Amino acid sequence: MRVRLKVWRQKHAHRPGGFHTYETPELNPNMSFLEMLDVVNEELTQRGEEPIAFDHDCREGICGTCSLVINGKPHGPHRGVATCQTYLRSFRDGDEIVVEPFRAKAFPLIKDLIVSRKAFDHIIQAGGFVSVRTGSAPDANALPIPKPDADRAMDAAQCIGCGACVAACKNASAMLFVAAKVSHLALLPQGKVERERRARAMVQAMEAAGFGGCSVTGSCEAVCPKEISLEFIARLNREYGRALLKGPN
Amino acid sequence: MNLLQELWGSSLGRKYVMAVTGACLFLFAVGHMVGNLQVFLGAEPLNAYAHLLQSSPKLLWCARLTLLVIVILHVGSAVALTLENRAARPVAYVQARYEGSSLASRTMLLSGLILGCFVVFHLLHYTVRMPAVNLTGKDFADFQHTLADGTVCPDVYRMMIVGFSHRLVALFYAVGVTLLCFHLGHGVGAMFQSLGLKNRVWGSVVDRAAWVAAGVLWLGYLSIPVAVQLGLGKEVLP
Amino acid sequence: MKLEANIPAGPLAQKWSKYRFDSKLVSPANKRRYKVVVVGAGLAGASAAATLAELGYDVENFVFHDSPRRAHSIAAQGGINAAKNYQNDGDSVRRLFYDTIKGGDFRAREANVYRLAEVSVSIIDQCVAQGVPFAREYGGLLDNRSFGGAQVSRTFYARGQTGQQLLLGAYSALARQAGLGAVKCHTHAEMLDLVVVDGHAKGIIVRNLISGELTRHAADAVVLATGGYGNVFNLSTYARGSNATAIWRAYKRGACFANPCFTQIHPTCIPVSGDYQSKLTLMSESLRNDGRIWVPKQAGDKRPPQDIPEGERDYYLERMYPSFGNLAPRDISSRAAKRVCDEGRGVGESGRGVYLDFAEAIQRLGEATIRERYGNLFAIYKEITDENAYRSPMRIFPAVHYTMGGLWVDYSLMSNLPGLFVLGEANFSDHGANRLGASALMQGLADGYFVLPATIAGYLASQKPDQRPRPDHDAFRQAEEQVRGSVRRLLASQGQRTVASFHKELGQLLWDHCGMARNAAGLKQALDRIPALREEFWRNVRVPGDAEELNQSLERAGRVADFLELAELLCLDALTREESCGGHFREEHQYPDGEAKRDDQNFAFVSAWEYQGPDRPPVLQREPLGYEEVKMTTRSYK
């Protein structure tokens, strides 16, 4: 099969960018989408052109490095997978595929399809942790945790920090990302100790980074490679409200 | 006042404001509909009810002002949030699918603003009773009714029948309430979400219940102009 | 040069406490006057950086990723071992120690491995306290599963994403310190050289991957936690960005490289499907708890698996290793798979695959149970192959997965270059010639949370506070110039071939001659061809773009240039080690039944290679392996 790629190219943040169209060589439907970009890049390099810059690393859907908005949807057509787990058999021979970078004020563009997601690190630094020093922990089994709570916490903790939720949201909101971390820790007794401080600090960091608010459209959940539920956003709203009522601490 | 500052200072806080005021407006919409449905009971009960509501001007104005504040907060938070949300994506996508989101959820501001215009018309039509907007050439302020106990009060029943007898006005109301219910279908569910009152057990129930409630409101409100068009109360028409 | 392992005297079980008691300390007020540079933020790097900052050191962390949460530790699926004995099945620190030593085919350092087993229990406590959502039983206590090479259930897990959860735990600890201003996190920052001043590691040269700017970072100690070098094979289960550049450049600055030929080939990966392939995907070893591995008895049997009757199937692991069966260690399982495929009994289009069959387990436990245990793995398999493993067996084949070799370190994790500490997969220390499943996570976190923070004080106490060289020192200037020169050279070549094509060719060469089975003739052939390929690389590579911008071709070119050198050392080490042990299988050294023939008489040592310059062969230093408390036995899983 062959496809036509319409790819956003931009040398760096301060230069204007635009779409370039590339006809791919013959492809194998079992290739991953990123392997297809590898093939295109090999051709470009051989022709003496600069290859398309795109983020990727583990190529098995867990590191959260890959991004891309493929035909208007972050991480491509399928639910519950990242771009690196998208295979060409999801497209048809002759398709035109539009590839854009994640767009958000809080994710400034670096080059071509690569954006900076540092804002996520800043949010976690503000409160996405349990304040425990190495070596000070009690025995792991000293604190029984109901299995449903642990499972639920794991559902939230699966977030890979890719930013697709932001890319998909019409408001470029990071609520699902923040909600996942706040919920993961709020569901566990270890995390409950500083839950108010965490919710307040992480929300403040999120707003300072320039993300939009939540309009409950559900796009984030629909594109999340780990299918993290919108329900966690409700939990974040609850946690934050609780923090407001308890006052600063 | 720290709490209020913080409340308004974050998008989550403004969503709480929007949700709480939205809930008030939703309850008002329900009450208003129930009151209006008394039109089906005839002129006497409806006019008696209307008279009761208006019998204490102080209370009436209190209620009106409260409603006004609620509306201002609701619209104000919506506008503030929208401006922020727009700023969060300075460069738009060439192709955007907004996977998984409903049309209602993406157009809340639009449906809300149009709804606002409709409400203004509605107030001019029946509350201010501005003759120019009712298109029937009559002045609703002239309609009087004498209750069973002899009290003379405005004839709301006749006003409604006359008002909705004009086809264009009836159609405009139909569009207005449809938009209202479209707004509420998403809004009521989102209200629970924003206040953190949803979880995975009843979350989907809440969402479905929101659309059911919106549907009930739609039927209730729509039934009046439709019934008038079909001949309800034609005895009071000239 | 004599390599001194600095193992404390005394009985094995008391060595670590004795070491800690005897170690010098740095007073709290002085700690902030020492700067420690930590390169990498995987399990080892993130946990080390966080813990050092908690202790009060002035820490800077460098990652080439866009965030410290991306390192490939995140992809570890199965679990982490710890000698908690929560299952009451006879586990103990000593048993974990013994399993690990035996699993490593008696080529690991006894004292290090014992310490690892000892510390393992604290890791679980630490992670739980951080909020790592390990799997639990209904009673609320932690659940365990079993893993290859052990007869007890000691593996803690978080669904199929244990590495992710542990890494996010360590990342959160690091983020906390960054938020407090105790760690400065540099992202998109690739270490391109180690700076050595008066024989001590005193800083690094870093390229900012966005601006291309080179910067100098002086420190009192340098910690490398930059992972393994398995991508030298090009196709592997590693992340595409995983590379050996940091450790390789440290090697060229004088740090010894130990046991480079000890590479692990993981038995359960999805087979290669075409030449476009960029990586191989691992299917967690935990699948072997319930899946049965088989091939047809008849060579060339191309019938679909469901048409092959039970009697015509060869469950070869169960047949060859009845006591461990499908849970035989990785090196043994991989080699067995290679053997049956070489006999023409491999399955799938390429004939390079074996079946991993869940039919029996589904019948026994029901599909729902299997789905609960392995659902995400079955989903991954479906995504990649478009096949439903609930209906027909998975096809799997071994792939490069881990490198036991790495920079040489002593008991305190310090390399022969004073001031240079090496943690996690980047060092060689704990897994010998083969690593057991669920032990990589254990080692990374042991090194980062508990070992380094205790041992680094010993070195720092010997250095005066605030006396580190300044970045304008000559050694920094020279190192920076050297890096700038090699970057320029790569861009100037303007040849015909892409970096990827060289990487692919190198990988194939290594896989063919230095993969699951090695022999002298093949290794010599590889040793002939690698220098030629390297020469062609520098003459004929084409790297588009500039140095002063984000340039992914340039990044990869630098990494492949290092792989082209490392590959040679790997083959040289494999050729020199005239025995078979663990992941290193020399065809000349096997028993008649095909089992590995180890030679304790002549090879019970760590090979540590010392760089001598670009035109001279490296010198082999031997660190003899003495076992005080265990007896070296033939490793049998029969």
Largest interface: A-C, 80 and 82 residues
The radius of gyration over CA of chain B amounts to 20 Å
The gross shape of chain B turns out to be elongated
CATH class of the domain at 266-401 in chain C: Alpha Beta
What class, by secondary structure content of chain B? mainly alpha
Stated plainly, the CATH topology of the domain at 266-401 in chain C is called Flavocytochrome C3, Chain A, domain 1
Strand elements of chain B, count: 2
Lateral arrangement of strands in the main beta sheet of chain B? 1-2
The class by helix and strand makeup of chain C works out as: alpha/beta
* CATH architecture heading of the domain at 266-401 in chain C: Alpha-Beta Complex
Overall structural domain count of chain B: 1
Look at the structure and give the CATH class of chain B: Mainly Alpha
From the 3D structure, determine the CATH topology of chain B: 3 helical TM bundles of succinate and fumarate reductases
Largest β sheet strand count, sense and barrel closure of chain C: 5 strands, parallel
Oligomeric organization of the protein chains: heterotrimer
Secondary structure tally, helices of chain B:
9
> What portion of residues of chain B belong to β-strands?
under 5%
Number of helices of chain C: 17
**Strand adjacency order, main sheet of chain C:** 5-2-1-9-17
Give an account of the 3D structure.
Chain A has 9 helices and 7 strands, in the order E-E-H-E-E-E-E-E-H-H-H-H-H-H-H-H. Chain A has 249 residues and is α+β, with helices and mostly antiparallel strands. In chain A, the strands form 2 sheets. Chain A has a 5-stranded mixed beta sheet with strand order 2-1-5-3-4. A two-stranded antiparallel ribbon of chain A has the order 6-7. Chain B has one domain (12-87, 105-236): 3 helical TM bundles of succinate and fumarate reductases (Up-down Bundle). In chain B, helix 2 packs across helix 4, helix 2 packs across helix 8 and helix 6 (108-127) crosses helix 8. Chain B is elongated, with a radius of gyration of 20 Å. In chain B, 33% of the residues are buried. Among the domains of chain C are: 266-401, Succinate dehydrogenase/fumarate reductase flavoprotein, catalytic domain (Flavocytochrome C3, Chain A, domain 1), CATH 3.90.700; 474-603, Methane Monooxygenase Hydroxylase, Chain G, domain 1, CATH 1.20.58. Chain C has helices at residues 15-22, 28-31, 43-55, 93-103, 110-130, 162-179, 245-252, 316-320, 330-342, 359-365, 367-385, 440-460, 474-492, 499-514, 520-540, 552-576, 600-603; strands at 35-39, 58-62, 80-81, 155-156, 183-186, 189-197, 200-208, 214-218, 221-224, 257-258, 263-269, 292-296, 313-314, 354-357, 394-403, 406-407, 420-422, 497-498, 541-542, 605-610, 619-624. A 5-stranded parallel beta sheet of chain C has the order 5-2-1-9-17. In chain C, strands 11-15-14-12-13 form a 5-stranded antiparallel beta sheet. Chain C has a 4-stranded antiparallel beta sheet with strand order 16-10-20-21. In chain C, a hairpin with an 8-residue loop joins strand 20 and strand 21 (619-624). The longest helix of chain C has 25 residues, at 552-576.
